[in-house]
Amino acid sequence: MPALGKVYLIGAGPGAQDLITLRGARLLAQADVVLHDALVTDEMLALCPQAEKILVGKRYGQLSTAQQFINKQLVDYAGKVPLVVRLKGGDPMLFGRADEELRALEEAGIEVEVVPGITTALAAAAATKQPLTKRGVARSVAFFTSSTAPEHSDHHAIPDTDTLVQYMGGREATATAARMLAQGRRPDTPVVVIENCSRSDQRIRRLTLGSLAHGLGPAHGPVLVMLGDAMKMRSHQAPDIAAAVDAIQQRA
User: Fold this and answer.
1) Quick check: pTM over 0.70?
2) Which of 26, 46, 86, 215 is spaced 20 to 30 Å from 139 by Cα?
3) Is 197 exposed, middle or buried (0-12, 13-18, 19+ CB in 10 A)?
4) Domain ranges of the chain
5) Which domain of life is it from (predicted)?
């Protein structure tokens, strides 16, 4: 019986090729097979020209690869080639179905290693120059998503924290804002929306909780929403992103 290969769950980071870790890039260059998310960019996949690349993406409202099938592919390929990469946007351990894939690989007796990546929330904070915590203003942060398993589709609880970061917020942010307003949050609470974080077509919108429903607009890529008083602009913040409320910045 041939020896089993090893599987690496690698975080690709928010999108830009140079934001993947050195270890992640090195393993991509050695990979035999790369199973990648829909959000992984073409420039990132250029780091593994030698590998067989398989799209196993999941996008809201579009045809997606079933998670059980992805698990099976990881196990099957580990029985055929020495080095298999499961390449995920952001960090594998945050909203990345890593638990399900780790369980499948461990049950099959396949060696697996996780290589962390920069999660989009931290990349967005850097891109907008808005720290998620601020002394005297915000000492707690919660990451959450409205996407969940079908058996938990009625789970709409919003974390009680100073700064909220909603992943996959393009279609759900208005509902989140409505619930927060109903819970007594101030309408003038600052909100920063970032689309296609770190990519050439990155867009930043600066809104408030009260204006979010009207100012969000259509999205053409992954959207992350940051809410809370830590998002308030500094008095001397650079004018290219500290323009009037509802302004949009388009990266060159």
Assistant:
1) yes
2) 215
3) buried
4) 6-115, 120-250
5) Bacteria
pLDDT of residue 240: 43
With bands split at pLDDT 50, 70 and 90, how would you rate the model's confidence at 172? confident
Four-way CATH pick for 120-250: 3.30.950.10, 3.60.20.30, 3.10.180.10, 3.30.70.580:
3.30.950.10
- The answer to whether 209 and 177 have CB atoms below 8 angstroms apart is yes
Q: What is the spatial distance between Cα 151 and Cα 214, in angstroms, rounded to a whole number? A: 31
Identity of residue 163: T
Q: In what order do the strands lie in the sheet with 203-208?
A: 141-145, 163-167, 223-227, 190-195, 203-208, 248-250
Any catalytic annotation for residue 246?
no
Average model confidence (pLDDT) across the chain: 89
Our answer to whether residue 37 is catalytic in this structure is yes
Mean pLDDT of 77-100: 97
pLDDT band at 250 (very low <50, low <70, confident <90, very high): very low
